[in-house]
Amino acid sequence: MNMKTTKFYTLLVLLLMAGGVTMQAQTEDDFWMGIDPPTTGVFSLIEDAEGNIIVGATGVYSSPDGGATWSLIGLENSGILRLYEHTDGTLLAGTNYGGHPLQKREAGSTEWKALPVPTIANGVSIGVTPDNSLLLGTWEGIYKSTDWDSTWTNVYVDHSGVCEVTGLLKLNNGTMLATVLDHIGMGMGGVFKSTDNGETWSNIGLSDKFPFSLAKNSQDEIYVGCLVLYDPDNPQRGFYKSSDYGETWEELLPHQCVQSITVDNNDVIYVNLYCDAWGNPFGIYRWENGDEWLYGLAAGMPDRRIEKQFLSNDGYLYAFGQYDNQIYRSRKSVYEEFEIDVVACPENGGTVVGSGIYSFGEFAHLSASANANYQFVGWTNQDGDTISTEQDCVHMIARGGQLTANFVSIEAVDETEGKAFTLWPNPASQTVYIDGVEVDVVQVYNALGQVVKTMRGTNEITVAELPQGVYLVRIADAEGKVLTAKMAVSR
User: Fold this and answer.
1) Considering the entire predicted model, what is its pTM?
2) Position 261 pLDDT exceeds 60
3) 312 CB-near residues (< 8 Å, 6+ apart)
4) Are the C-beta atoms of 380 and 386 separated by less than 8 Å?
5) Which residue in 120, 126, 140 sits closest to 44, CA to CA?
6) What are the tens digits of pLDDT across the range 48-80?
7) What is the CA radius of gyration of the chain?
8) pLDDT classification of 448: cutoffs 50, 70, 90
9) pLDDT at 20
C-alpha cells in the first residue's frame, strides 16, 4: 500500500447542511453515503478537471460540492449514455437522441454542438487514440474523427445491427481495445484491438461471451466483465483477465454478471456484480490482486441494482444506476490509510494477528488463538460492539483504532468425558433452557469477559434484557463441576 496525499472535504457536514444527502443510519463503519441525484435515471458520472461532479441522465448536470447542489448544463431533451472529458477541457456526451449520437461542449463554453456522426445509432462508448483521434462506439460499429468535428469514418462496421460497442480503452503501450456485445449470441462480438490508432480492428478473444465492461491496471493487464441478466448458469457470463494483451485469457469468476469494473491507483479492483451465481446481494465488491475473492462493500448501501461506478482523482468511489433514484459515494477516499491495533483482552488470554496499516475499504484478516485455560468469545470494534464471533474473520476497515479479541478464563472447567448438556433455543430472544445437568450456579459473560447475570438453582436463563450478541455460559453443577457453552441472543 502506498501512502497518498489526498484532498478530503468534510462533505458529510456540508451535504447535511445543504439537504442534498439522504442519510440512512450512517455509522463510522459504513463505506457508503447516499447522495440525491439531480433527476432519476443516472446513466453516466464523471469528475471534470475542476473537481465538479458531472452526471448524465435526461440532460447533463453539474455539482461543485459533491452532490449537495446541482445545476442543469444542457441537453435536457437527451438521454446521456456516456460522458467523457478530454485533457483540454472538451466535454463529450454520447446520447440516445436520434440522429445526434455525440454532443460536444468546448472548454469555457456553455453551448453544446451536435457532431455529424453518420449514424442514428446511440452513442454508447467514447475513446481517444494515441494520435488524439476521437472514437465513438455505437450499435453500428466504431466511428473515428481526426478533427473532433466534421470528419468521420466508420472504422469498424457491424453489418448485423445487433452488436453494441460497450467499451473503448487505450492501453499504456498505445493499443486501443473495444468490447463488442453480440446481443443474440452468434459469436460476432468479443474483445477487439487496434494498433494503428483505430484504423483497423481484430478480434483477440471472448467471442463466445457477452463482454460488457472493460478496464486495465498499471501493468496493462486487461479485465473484461461479461453481462447476461437473470441467468446465473449462463456460460457467456464471467470475469476475465489477460496479462499478455489478449493472447490468452484467464477466467477469474465463472458465471458472474459483471456490469462495471474500476481499478484504482494501487491496482485494487472494484467489480459490480448483478444477479450473481452464489446468491449474494448484487453490488460493489473489492478484490486486491493475490487475495481471495470477494469482499462486498455493502455497508451504508441498501440492496440496490447498481450498474456503474466511477473513481474520482482523489479516490472517492461513486456507484449509481439508471433504475435507482440514488447515487452513492464512499465516505472517504479509498487512498486514505488507517492504523489498526489488534489486541487481546485480557492480554494473557490469547494471541492475535491482524495489526497493520489499511486503506479505507480494505479488509483486515483477523485471527485469534486462545491460551491454555482461556476461551475465545468474540471480536469487538472501537466502540465495544461485537463484529464477529469467529476466531478467524475479515473486517472492513473504515477508521483507525483498536480491534479486540475477547477471551474468558475457563481455568475451573472440568470437561469430563461424557458430561454433556444442552442450551435451547440457541440463539434465543427471551428464555434459554438448560438440559442434561443439575444446575447449582449459572453465570453469563459478555464479549468483554464481564459477568452480566448470575442465577442459582434454576435451569432457565432469562435473556430478554440482554443486548444482542454472543455470550459465554458457565454452569456449576450439583457435584461442583464447571461446564461452559456459547449462547447467542438475537432480536
Assistant:
1) 0.80
2) yes
3) 47, 53, 318
4) yes
5) 126
6) 999 999 999 999 999 999 889 999 999 999 999
7) 28
8) confident
9) 38
Residue type, 320: F
Q: Are 351 and 369 in contact (CB under 8 A)?
A: yes
237-265 average pLDDT score: 91
Contact indicator for 239, 271 with CB cutoff of 8 Å: yes
Write down the mean pLDDT value for the chain: 85
CA–CA distances in Å: residue 62 to residues 48, 51, 478: 9, 10, 74
pLDDT of residue 177: 97
d(CA 14, CA 307): 27
The pLDDT, as a whole number, for residue 197 is: 97
Paired strand residues for 351: 369
The three cell numbers locating residue 86? 478530454
> Which residues 6+ apart lie within 8 Å of 413 measured at CB?
474, 482, 483, 484
| Tens-place pLDDT, residues 140-192 | 899 999 999 999 999 987 666 678 999 999 999 999 999 998 876 666 789 99
- Mean pLDDT calculated for residue range 118-132: 95
226: amino acid identity, one letter: C
Q: For position 2, what pLDDT does the model report?
A: 33
Per the CB < 8 A criterion, the answer to whether 477 and 439 are in contact is yes
Find the angle CA(25)-CA(27)-CA(31) to the nearest 5 degrees: 105
Q: For residue 237, give the nearest of 204, 215, 268, 206 by alpha carbon.
A: 206
What is the dihedral sign for C-alpha 84, 167, 214, 41? Answer: positive
What is the residue whose three cell numbers read 443474440?
Answer: 184
Sheet with strand 363-370: strands edge to edge: 350-353, 363-370, 392-396
Mean pLDDT of 292-296: 64
